[in-house]
Amino acid sequence: MQARAAPVVAAAAPxxxxxxxxxxxxxxxxxxQSTREDLRQAGIDLRTDVVAANRAxxxxxxxxxxKFDATAEAHIRLGIDPKYNDQQVRATVALPKGxxxxxxxxVVCGADQEAAAREAGAEHVGGESxxxxxxxxxxDFDKLVATPDMMPKVAxxxxxxxxxxxxxxxxxxTVAVEAGxxxxxxxxxxxxxxxxxxxxxxxxxxxxxxxxxxLLENLGAIVRAIQANKPVGAKGEYFKSMYVVSTMxxxxxxxxxxxIE
Length: 261
Prior knowledge:
Blueprint: H1 2-11, H2 20-27, H3 30-41, H4 53-62, E1 71-78, E2 90-94, E3 105-108, H5 111-119, E4 124-126, H6 128-135, E5 143-146, H7 151-154, H8 158-161, H9 179-188, E6 190-194, E7 200-207, H10 212-228, E8 239-246, E9 252-254
Parallel strand pairs: 3-4, 3-5
Antiparallel strand pairs: 1-7, 1-8, 2-6, 8-9
């Protein structure tokens, strides 16, 4: 253990001249340093080790020290260049164990689907009147579902909804022929994933209060969905790396191929 501690001692020398903000950037918070040291004591070096997926899900729970139910997230770097149309990744996946979040859904549909949408649990349901409410500033929802016939009316909300990521989109499962079914799926754990400009997919897959087995099942569903939506333009190695992390917790590298048959 003495040999492993040496780099920390050596790195501490210039710390006297750093501000608290610079110290946190350089070494992490005291809590994070303690967590990393505990893991090193257990034989896990987060800087170099690839952690088995089931073990990582267990560690997400045991290393979470915040006073709230932290979110578990996956950050997956893909071998794509999203600036090309044939290398973009955007789709949805139904998490078998849910997200652990309460999703508020608004639905813009015709009168014939309003009852089904309400029965499915939508918080706001309506036609042109709801579009007008949203245009007036009502944004008390997390997802907006629209039926295809209502999209021309919803289109005028682009400036309001676009910057907030709330504009209905078929790839996100929020433009749906059956509004009630779409609401059920969103409330049941359906999430959207998409690669950012760097080709990285960021997606939550549960809460640290979930059993580790449930987190593992959700994580596997995400990896398989990303594999199933591999763009035709992707060449070479598709999964470059994958890390899982809880809110304000340490990140751990895991091997995505372990989820793919």
